Amino acid sequence: MLESPNFALRLEALFTVTALRAALWLLPFRWWRGRLALILNRPPAPAPGDMAPSFLAARAVESVSRFVPNASCLVQALALRRMLDRRGTVCDLRLGVTRSKRGDFEAHAWIESGGRILIGAGPAARFKPLAGDPSKQVGSDHSRA
Question: Of 3, 56, 88, 137, which alpha carbon lies 20 to 30 A from 103's?
Answer without folding.
Answer: 137
